[in-house]
Backbone:
């Protein structure tokens, strides 16, 4: 079983992650981890913090001579903007943020104690973990990408684009949108939100390709990989909805327009010509690309603050204003990839097992032979 923990506050000394259960013998290069961290920092609409930070991971343990050794992998990313003990006290919780519920729950007099950990900066640690998982998945031909499909109601048109095209086009776009025209409109909308001291949300899509048939299981609720991936995406700060494949649109039409017909030829084996199921049937991967989308609410720090209540005086006051992003949906896509990579790697190891990369590879090859014969 693969598992991880993260630790660290937004303006604390650093962010830390420990990944446990990764096979030995996997070549892990800090450069690859840092490339993912750099992708997370980008995106039109980010605030001032990203100009301060240059997130770089130090691998503290679990890797020797650039190869994993089977022990827990500890990753540390220092915060340049380290000032946790010099920050103003916060008494006016922001509607939409964890501020008020956190202060009540943990009996904090200073909302700062809550917001520092609730901050989406924690996702630095998740992306570092995800980067290691991506390296593992790549050894088995599995790749994960993402792109922004909606910002503030502006929809991208990406029907018919291949995985490769989505990856290429979104990497060239400042908003990580694979539709150039929609990308420009999204940026104009972000500019408008900034001018009006507002924030804006959107939807990102995560796609995984090369995933073999049979990850996850239908036999029990907690073994459905589709559900685990939904939970993984819903756990990202500000995510309010997740859908798989055709998603909520399945409710708008008939079964014949929803289900992906089954075909077979010698070269490809079983395959589909459509992928409304988003790569899952019975919660199990069916060999098609995995496609999941997540809706991100507009960030709750508004430069023109909403009404709130001072937690000491109980009097109405405008919510606190913190430096923040106008939007971070492009970054959320990268975080979604990391979370998906972790869940996929976990599920892969659950099915194929192994303590070393070679052992997992042998087990996987045996399964491949088995399904070729089916
Ligand atoms: C973030 C760092 C934060 C915010 C944002 C994401 O930095 P700071 O609070 O210093 O500006 O930019 O955090 C939030 C959106 C949030 O809700 O707290 C990052 O590294 O991604």
Residues:
């Amino acid at each position: 079983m693969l598992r991880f923990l993260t630790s660290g506050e937004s303006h604390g000394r650093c962010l830390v992650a420990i990944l446990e259960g990764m096979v030995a013998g996997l070549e892990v290069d800090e450069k690859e981890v840092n490339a993912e961290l750099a992708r997370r920092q980008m995106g039109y609409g980010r605030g001032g913090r990203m100009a301060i930070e240059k997130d770089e991971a130090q691998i503290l343990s679990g890797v020797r001579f650039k190869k994993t050794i089977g022990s827990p992998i500890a990753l540390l990313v220092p915060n340049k903007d380290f000032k946790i003990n010099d920050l103003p006290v916060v008494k006016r919780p922001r509607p939409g943020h964890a501020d008020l519920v956190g202060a009540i729950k943990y009996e904090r007099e200073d909302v700062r104690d809550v917001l520092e950990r609730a901050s989406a900066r924690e996702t630095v640690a998740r992306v570092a973990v995800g980067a290691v998982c991506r390296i593992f998945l790549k050894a088995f031909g599995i790749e994960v990408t993402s792109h922004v499909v909606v910002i503030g109601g502006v929809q991208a048109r990406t029907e018919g684009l291949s995985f490769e095209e989505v990856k290429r086009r979104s990497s060239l776009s400042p908003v990580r949108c694979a539709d150039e025209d929609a990308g420009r409109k999204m940026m104009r909308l972000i500019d408008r939100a900034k001018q009006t001291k507002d924030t804006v949300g959107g939807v990102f899509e995560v796609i995984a390709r090369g995933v073999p048939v049979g990850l996850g299981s239908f036999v029990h609720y907690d073994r459905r990989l589709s559900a685990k991936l939904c939970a993984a995406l819903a756990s990202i700060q500000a995510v309010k909805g997740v859908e798989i494949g055709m998603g909520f649109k399945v409710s708008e039409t008939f079964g014949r327009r929803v289900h992906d017909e089954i075909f077979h030829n010698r070269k490809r084996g079983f395959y589909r010509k459509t992928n409304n199921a988003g790569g899952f049937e019975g919660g199990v991967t069916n060999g098609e690309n995995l496609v999941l989308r997540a809706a991100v609410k507009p960030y709750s720090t508004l430069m023109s603050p909403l009404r709130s209540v001072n937690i000491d005086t109980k009097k109405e006051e405008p919510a606190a204003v913190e430096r923040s992003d106008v939007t971070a949906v492009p970054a959320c896509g990268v975080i979604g990839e990391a979370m998906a990579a972790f869940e996929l790697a976990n599920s892969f190891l659950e099915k194929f097992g192994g303590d070393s990369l070679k052992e997992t590879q042998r087990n996987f090859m045996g399964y491949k032979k088995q399904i070729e014969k089916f």
Observations:
- Residues 10, 47, 49, 81, 119-121, 123-124, 299, 322-325, 328, 331 surround EPS (CB under 6 Å).
- The radius of gyration is 22 Å.
- The chain has one domain: 3-373.
- Residues 3-373 form a domain with the Chorismate synthase, AroC fold fold (CATH 3.60.150.10).
